[in-house]
Amino acid sequence: MAKLNIYKIDNMKIDEFDTILSEKLDYIAIKENVDSDGRIFEMSLYMIQPDNEKDISWNWLLKEFEQSKIMAKSNPRGIIKISIDGELYVATFGSSYFLVDKYSDRKFPFEFAKRSDYKDIRTTALHSPGRQRNKTVNTYSKCSELEYDSGESFSKIKANIKTEKEEKRFNGTIEIGNSIKFSMKENTLDNIVQIINYIDATLEKDIIHKIPLFNKVDGDRIIELDNQLIEAMKSEDMNIEISELDIIGVNEIFNHNDMAYTVEYDEFEKNISDLNLKEVKDFIESNQIDINNILNVEIVSYQDDSFSGKRTIKELVDYTNDKEEAVLFNGFWYEYNDDYVQYLTDSLEELQAVHNEAYNFLDKDYNEYVNAVYDEKKKEIEDITIDKIKHTYYKEYVFNSIMEENHGFKNYDRKIENGIESMDLYKDKTMFAVKIGNTSSKLCYVIDQSITSLRAYKSKMLKDFPEIENVAIWIILERKNQLSIKNGKVNINELDMLMLKNRIDNWKKNVRLMGYKPIVYVNYFIK
Predict the structure, then answer these.
(1) What are the DSSP E strand ranges found in 412-466?
(2) Distance, CA of 41 to CA of 43 (rounded, Å)
(3) Looking at residues 89-96, what average pLDDT do you find?
(4) Bigger pLDDT: 116 or 234?
(5) In terms of DSSP H, where are the helices of 152-297?
(6) At 40, which helix (H) or strand (E)?
(7) Fewer CB in 10 Å around end: N or C, the chain?
(8) Which residues sit opposite 298 in a β-bridge?
(9) How far is Cα 120 from Cα 173, in angstroms, rounded to an integer?
């Protein structure tokens, strides 16, 4: 029973795909197949059988035992190009899906998924940009409904679908990602044609499931987003990461799982064992390559000494552009579709979001506090400077101190137990984590601090800890325009910080699962 992995090529990329296909694979033959409706399917076979051999990585072991070394040959690859009514489908065999994936129509598989009726969902892969667990693979037992949280987008579904009792083309298990994979009951070109007809018929049906996905960004905006990503890489933005998991076609590719890599650009190359952005930047610097070309640097991956794939840095990086509300994965820029945005908006509106004007933090209050400390310290320390004072009495610490002195909070800032800072403030059975900032990269820290402290409290690692019923994150925004108040609550959906909003939503769920009430406090640092 052969596996049939079907892509649909993006209509805007057919010419580009044909060019790369003729360059990378050898044309073998063509056949025409006519279906029962008289439609003509033009089916062309391309393949490559590499004849180059290379040492396997563990030949050193054979040498130690005085044995002859082994040479390994790369896997053969094949493609069937299927043209019908101006549309181009491609069936891939071997590792050829790496070549095809970047030219695929990304909407096509999940338009099929929305209209398919599931009786047994086996596996899903979800992408959650901006979260600590930004990609997850879930397995299920006896599940017929697609499960997801706000802020999550599907990248793969494996399931048994409901079919007619006498389904003769394929068995009921399919996989949906950037392609659709079937298990054919009959290994013939005729059956491939019938399965494509089945796909087309499914796409004509009404939508059964709402599936949160990303909309692909097109046009000149891609260039703008690429340039912003390059600038972020130059500044060593800590939110840029090489993806640990990618979905290529319907295959889960774990980029750090017993693999070796070669970094390539023009005539330069370097073998590396650990794939990360620092290695790539070191490669660029040592070979005096213009860093503006970093997205075009290529990574060749090998698993068990066999070629596994070749992708550019742009195809390997996960990144969220907060300002533009765009995410990059698998080499494409995406925006959230309406289902995704609405789900996240509704979830954040459930939160209790509090603003008390008396808690706003004034720049003059900060400076007065620091200057008062300086006046006291310089009596004892001769070489003390105001900058040294500001380093020790940073804004969050001063804010927490003022809240304790003027508003009845208890200050726990810098109180460390078992290597954990328990919280920043406490009042009315509520623990607070506090952060001042104006970007997601700065403010997301408050989420991590809150969750870490709460887990430590739940596991009884923190002994000197008062009773809590509520868990709050307190965000002090450095911005002139304040968020509006909606239904008596701060409208945090107005924040133009996509990553932060995703993280807040995830934090809310974690706090509730641990049995506490999540609250967001919002105030402002006013100059």
Answers:
(1) 416-417, 420-421, 425-427, 430-437
(2) 6
(3) 89
(4) 116
(5) 189-203, 221-234, 277-286
(6) strand 40-48
(7) C
(8) 264, 312
(9) 9
Taking the C-alpha atoms of residue 373 and residue 379, their distance in angstroms, rounded to an integer, is 10
CA distance 295 to 270: 17
CA-to-CA separations, 381 to 334, 372, 394, 521, in angstroms, rounded:
55, 14, 19, 38
- Please, what sign has the CA dihedral across residues 360, 362, 368, 369? positive
For Cα atoms 443, 444, 449, give the angle at the middle one, nearest 5 degrees: 105
Could you tell me which of 160, 170, 211 has the C-alpha nearest to residue 191? 170
**Taking Cα atoms as reference points, which of 5, 192, 191 lies closest to residue 96?**
5
Q: What DSSP line would sit under 308-347, residue for residue?
A: EEEEEHHHHEEEEETTTTEEEETTEEEEE-HHHHHHHHHH
* Confidence at residue 400, expressed as pLDDT on a 0 to 100 scale: 95
pLDDT at 278: 85
Sign of the alpha-carbon torsion through 338, 156, 313, 10:
negative
Question: Computed over its alpha carbons, how large is the radius of gyration of the chain?
Answer: 28
* Cβ contact 14:88 at 8 Å: yes
CA distance 310 to 198: 32
Six token digits for residue 319: 């990144």
Strands 361-362 and 425-427: unpaired
Q: Which amino acid is at 58?
A: W
Return the DSSP state at 109.
H
- In this predicted structure, what is the pLDDT of residue 249? 55
| pTM attached to this predicted model | 0.62
The helix (run of H) or strand (run of E) holding residue 148 is none
Band (pLDDT 50/70/90 cuts) for residue 464 is confident
| DSSP output for 10-33 | -GGGHHHHHHHHHHHSEEEEEEEE
Distances (CA, A) of 377 to 294, 370, 389: 49, 10, 9
Question: The dihedral of CA 7, 13, 18, 20: what is its sign?
Answer: negative
Query: Which residues on adjacent β-strands are paired with residue 40?
Result: 34
pLDDT classification of 346: cutoffs 50, 70, 90: confident
Closest CA to 97 of 247, 266, 202, 270: 247
What would the two tokens of residue 227 be?
């340039």
Compute the distance between CA of residue 343 and CA of residue 70 in angstroms, rounded to an integer.
Answer: 55
Task: Convert the pLDDT of each residue in 42-89 to its tens digit.
Answer: 999 998 876 667 777 778 777 877 888 877 766 778 899 999 998 999
In the prediction, which pLDDT does 251 show?
A: 64
Reference 438, options 363, 495, 398; nearest CA is 495
Token pair in block for residue 74: 């790369």
H or E segment to which residue 87 belongs = strand 87-93
